[in-house]
Design goal:
- The complex is a heterodimer of chains A (268) and B (142).
- Chain A is mainly alpha-helical and 268 residues long.
- In chain A, 70% of the residues lie in helices and 4% in strands.
- Chain A has 10 helices and 2 strands.
- In chain A, strands 1-2 form a two-stranded antiparallel sheet.
- In chain A, a hairpin with a 4-residue loop joins strand 1 (126-130) and strand 2.
- In chain A, helix 1 (2-9) crosses helix 9 (211-234), helix 4 runs parallel beside helix 6 (144-161) and helix 4 (59-80) packs parallel to helix 8.
- The radius of gyration of chain A is 17 Å and the shape is globular.
- The two termini of chain A are 19 Å apart.
- Chain B has 142 residues and is mostly helical.
- Helices cover 75% and strands 0% of the residues of chain B.
- Chain B has 6 helices and no strands.
- Classes of the chains: A mainly alpha (268), B mainly alpha (142).
- Chains A and B meet through helix 3, helix 4, strand 1, strand 2 and helix 6 of A and helix 1, helix 2, helix 3, helix 5 and helix 6 of B.
Chain lengths: 268, 142
């Protein structure tokens, strides 16, 4: 389920996996983060081939942002292995609520179309065919400085929480950089795998990768992300954004409530 | 680099027809086909071989009634464990294989960008790989 949702919205699944592990299965937070990082890598490896084939992934944009994102992830992961669980819940819950509100406040911009004269000094403009809208979509990412700044933040959050960073990067690319939601999801889906490698290896070096938690996650990811990345091509982009908003709102609130000792029904 | 300095995006213009993106952007995207192809091949085979290793590890674990480990073994202990036919070692190898797939993809993309003569993006990719090198170094020191 985490993989289906993660792959559909370019989040890698970790943003759903860690809260599900800690809220519903009482798994130790740091083992959940380590497992999530491996699952995020797996989800990206499985799902990104579909995004790459559809040209939803902007590989130039991904590589431009990846260095700073991976650097942030390494720093974040080193912080996380020494942080306490309550603090991680507060940071995680806040990150989820931020992402949820930012998407809800300003629904996805209409499909942008790059004109012949749109400035593109770094040759980041790209085109893909949107099967749902039945048209070619061309775009040129804007506000690259914001993109780089947000990517470093996304990297730190990714490293601290075992998510891929897509929870911050997808809204940022879509709303600030004017990248269409499907391209933002496809690019983030590819990037989160590389970012989560940094996190996974830091947790591996600290002995926080537990195969008893990782293996079930990987099996779920193998199955779920195949479904998710195929559904992305068929589901209306607006509906995709609202799925994202509702689930993140629930999980973010749950983690913040957990940090003050309140557990919702069905959670542990 | 004017775009980097401009905090306000220019208004989005619309092309005469929806199905006709600017030729420049279309050519730019098509030029990257070889890199897309190599990235697709790398992630596809990384996934297939990682999934196969995981499946073998789970089968061996079930046949030998060997429970899954609670901590992934350090790098230098994985190979001997695999050679001894231990499920835990095979599963650890599957995990490490999967984690290394994006790293290999970045390496392949660096090669691809260099082959296309796109040194700028080869360099950006190289920076990403160098940053990953820090966490790889930490993992190897364990």
């Amino acid at each position: 389920m985490a993989a289906v949702l993660g792959s559909m919205v370019g989040l890698g699944g970790g943003v759903f996996l860690v809260p599900i592990f800690t809220l519903f299965f009482a798994v130790d937070q740091k083992l959940a983060i380590g497992a999530s990082a491996v699952a995020v890598v797996t989800n990206s490896v499985v799902g990104s081939s579909v995004h790459l084939r559809g040209r939803f992934t902007n590989i130039r944009l991904a590589m431009l942002l990846q260095g700073i994102t991976a650097g942030g992830a390494t720093v974040g992961a080193l912080m996380a292995v020494h942080a306490n669980e309550r603090m991680l819940n507060i940071v995680f819950g806040s990150a989820l609520l931020y992402a949820s509100f930012s998407m809800a406040r300003r629904p996805q911009a209409s499909l942008p179309t790059a004109a012949e004269g749109t400035p593109d000094p770094l040759q980041l403009g790209a085109v893909y065919r949107d099967p749902a809208a039945r048209r070619l979509v061309s775009y040129v990412p804007h506000r690259l400085r914001f993109g780089l700044a947000i990517s470093s933040l996304a990297g730190v959050v990714s490293g601290m929480l075992g998510v891929g960073g897509g929870v911050i990067q997808v809204p940022a690319m879509n709303l600030l950089m004017r990248v269409p939601i499907k391209a933002a999801a496809g690019t983030a889906s590819f990037m989160v795998g590389i970012t989560a490698v940094a996190t996974a290896l830091v947790f591996y070096s600290d002995g926080k990768i537990n195969p008893q938690v990782v293996v079930p996650s990987m099996i779920g990811i193998f199955l779920g992300s195949q479904i998710g990345s195929r559904l992305t091509r068929r589901i209306d982009a607006q509906r995709l954004s609202w799925i994202f908003v509702v689930i993140l709102l629930y999980l973010g609130s749950s983690l913040l409530l957990t940090s003050v000792g309140v557990t919702l029904p069905g959670q542990q | 680099m004017s775009d980097l300095n401009d905090p306000t995006p220019p208004p989005l213009a619309v092309t005469p027809t929806d199905d006709e993106p600017p030729a420049r952007v279309t050519i730019q995207t098509a030029a990257l086909d070889p890199i897309y192809d190599v990235a697709i091949r790398t992630v596809t085979w990384g996934f297939r071989s990682g999934a196969a290793l995981l499946a073998i590890g789970i089968i061996v674990s079930l046949v030998q009634r060997e429970p899954l480990g609670t901590v992934a073994e350090p790098f230098d202990e994985v190979a001997p464990s695999v050679l001894n036919g231990e499920a835990a070692g095979i599963i650890d190898l599957a995990i490490l294989w999967m984690v290394s797939t994006p790293v290999v993809t970045v390496v392949m993309m660096i090669v691809g960008f260099f082959r296309l003569g796109d040194r700028r993006y080869a360099l950006f990719s190289l920076v990403a790989l160098a940053v990953l090198g820090i966490s790889i170094g930490l993992a190897l020191r364990r």
